[in-house]
Design brief:
CATH architecture of the largest domain: Up-down Bundle
Order of helices and strands: HHHHHHHEEEEEEEEHEEHHHHHHHHHHH
Largest sheet: 8 strands, mixed
CATH class of the largest domain: Mainly Alpha
Number of domains: 4
Bound molecules: flavin-adenine dinucleotide
Number of strands: 10
Strand content: 5-15%
Shape: globular
Radius of gyration: 24 Å
Helix content: 55-70%
Distance between the termini: 36 Å
Length: about 575
């Protein structure tokens, strides 16, 4: 399956990559940019003018918008052409999602429809199920939802209690139980749900709207995304034909986990889109608002915020598209991109998908928090956009696997790959060698930082695996720090490589803003790594390695204050977000 340039998921920790080997947002072609433009115009012209109705939960308005977006082709990126879709690559699908950011509730509806509410059928449906549902899900004439969570089975999704019992004549299953917090359940035509056959075999089912015995609890009163309907689903002797079993009996966990990987990189892309919109609003406000006789953008405190907001966004964007680029590269060589081989290609990068989700959602929370601060008291009031952005963003750290669960995935998957010999991480950890020295070039110092970040992550990973062995998963304090160490490395490298590629294209002066972002990202990554690694080494009783750590973090610190000012000056000069 792998082609010559195939990079294993997680191998970035041991590989030295060239800038031209990664996909970056600057690589989007005219067709991809056209999809993005269509999506942005749809949000501006159709969605945002209906904000009040959407937030008042006038669901016919939101459903109507979803159907309109279907007519524009915005729901069909991931659906194969033979079933009425466009069958686009994942980079295009992610870019469309990013470009749909702007109205918190609508974008979640859209994400569910094009993600968890349809992808399980794309990847696991029988030809008959695909013929029945996919054309409608592609054009918006059918709506989907995804019911995995239960009251006693949230992060521990496989603890589900909903049961499916085969009827005596073998024609159907009878479902009893309930699902909790299901987005779009009340408006969905097809409900993708999970139940345990015989109380044990976790299995996917497709339940049609209106099936006898199916009902819904009241809408949850939520902190944000007020226009979304989120409710429980109740199954009371719901009869589901055997032809509606999704995938194989007892294999529902594969559906649940593989689809989550896709949800995670898309959520990361959406978070980037929201960050960009939040920055545009904040900049616009700070250009207008005056205090002490000056525009807010004149104040250093505000300029630093704007600079940092852009830096976090650019970094999250770099890693999100690098990851979808890796997936697309592997998918391009897959025998059947919508079958087992396609799923394997996406699963290969599950560590990266989790990092994209965690880093993207946390960058977004930083950005919207600073957005509120830029607006001051008006940021706290509903008639300005900051208040809704702040509330609507918070959910992203909770669904598609909480950020804690994703951090556990990052660290434990890497250790598993190392233990099974898929990745030579332990070998590399045995000898982290001498610290890398600054190379020549505008981001030469940052190249050394990234090389040393890898050494630090490998050092801690190797020591942790040696100390705890199979018990490492239980040492959550270490595991969570390890995940952050690895993520900081991936973010820093993704940012650096993208910037190097950009410098080669536009020259140092043209790429001044990316260079500034790279300085900030790498400096913060190594600062964070030093702290995390130190805490791990001390906690593991490995203080003897503190000297090695000190050598790896030794550097002439980058001037992050100046770098933020470079970014802010550019924003203020252009009066818009431009990277
Ligand atoms: C608005 C909204 C929309 C949603 N939409 C959907 C949907 O469409 N379909 C669907 O199926 N679900 C949906 N969910 C459910 C969502 O995926 C779950 O809320 C989420 O997976 C967490 O489960 P939980 O709420 O039961 O929290 P819990 O699992 O109880 O977690 C509580 C806390 O404990 C932590 N924790 C749990 N287990 C561990 C562990 N092993 N180690 C360390 N920390 C741990 C968590 O990270 C979290 O901080 C939605 C939820 C909300 C709020």
């Amino acid at each position: 399956m792998p082609n010559a340039a195939f990079k294993r998921g997680g191998s970035f920790l041991v590989d030295a990559l060239l800038p031209e080997e990664i996909f970056t947002p600057e690589d989007f072609d005219a067709e991809q940019q056209m999809y993005a433009k269509t999506a942005r115009e749809f949000v501006e012209k159709d969605v945002l003018p209906r904000d009040a109705e959407i937030e008042a939960k006038e669901l016919d308005v939101t459903v109507g918008l979803l159907k309109k977006s279907g007519e524009l082709g915005l729901l069909m990126a991931d659906i194969p052409e033979e079933y009425g879709g466009l069958g686009l690559d994942k980079a295009s699908a992610a870019l469309i999602v990013e470009s749909l950011a702007g109205q918190g509730s609508y974008q979640v509806f859209h994400l569910v429809q094009t993600g968890i509410g349809s992808l399980p059928i794309v990847y696991y449906g029988t030809p008959e199920q695909k013929r029945r549902y996919l054309p409608g899900l592609a054009d918006g004439s059918l709506l989907g939802c995804y019911g995995l969570t239960e009251t006693a089975a949230g992060s521990d999704a496989l603890a589900a209690r909903t049961k499916a019992v085969l009827s005596a004549d073998g024609s159907h299953y009878v479902l009893n139980g309930s699902k909790q917090f299901i987005t779009s359940a009340r408006v969905a035509d097809v409900l993708i749900v999970f139940a345990k056959v015989g109380g044990e075999q976790f299995t996917g089912f497709l339940v049609d709207k209106g099936t006898a015995g199916l009902s819904f609890g009241p809408d949850e009163h939520k902190m944000g995304i007020h226009g979304c309907t989120t409710s429980s689903i109740i199954f009371e002797d719901v009869q589901v034909p055997v032809g509606n079993v999704l995938g194989e009996i007892g294999q529902g966990h594969k559906i649940a986990f593989n689809i989550l990987n896709m949800g995670r990189f898309k959520l990361g892309a959406l978070a980037v889109g929201m960050c960009k919109r939040a920055i545009e609003h904040s900049l616009g406000y700070c250009l207008e608002r005056k205090q002490f006789g000056q525009r807010l953008v004149a104040f250093g405190a505000i300029r630093e915020k704007l600079g940092q907001m852009v830096a976090r966004t650019y970094a999250a964007e770099s890693m999100a598209y690098r990851t979808v680029g890796l997936i697309d590269q592997l998918l391009a060589g897959a025998a059947d991109k919508y079958g087992e081989a396609g799923l394997d290609s996406i699963e290969e990068y599950s560590v990266e998908c989790s990092m994209v989700k965690v880093v993207g959602s946390e960058a977004l929370d930083h950005v919207v928090d600073e957005m509120v601060q830029c607006y001051g008291g008006y940021g706290y009031c509903g008639e300005y956009p900051a208040e809704a952005y702040y509330r609507d963003s918070r959910i992203n750290r909770i669904y598609e696997g909480t950020n804690e669960i994703n951090r556990l995935v990052i660290a434990t998957m890497l250790v598993r790959k190392a233990t099974s010999g898929v990745l030579p991480l332990f070998e590399a950890a045995e000898d982290v060698g001498v610290p890398a020295e600054a190379a020549t070039g505008v981001v030469g110092a940052e190249q050394a930082v990234v090389a040393n970040l890898k050494k630090i992550a490998l050092l801690v990973l190797g020591l942790a695996a040696r100390k705890y062995g199979r018990g490492l998963g239980k040492e959550q304090s270490i595991v969570l720090r390890l995940a952050d160490l690895v993520s900081a490395t991936y973010v820093a490298e993704s940012t650096l490589l993208r910037t190097q590629k950009d410098v080669a294209r536009r020259g140092e002066a043209g790429a001044a803003l990316p260079v500034a972002v790279t300085r900030i990202t790498c400096e913060e990554a190594i600062d964070q790594a030093e702290r995390l690694a130190r805490q791990c080494l001390v906690a593991m009783g490995e203080s003897g390695f503190l000297e090695t750590l000190a050598a790896l973090v030794k550097r002439t610190p980058a001037d992050v204050v100046a770098a933020r000012e470079v970014i802010a000056a550019k924003l203020v000069e252009m009066e818009r977000l431009t990277i």
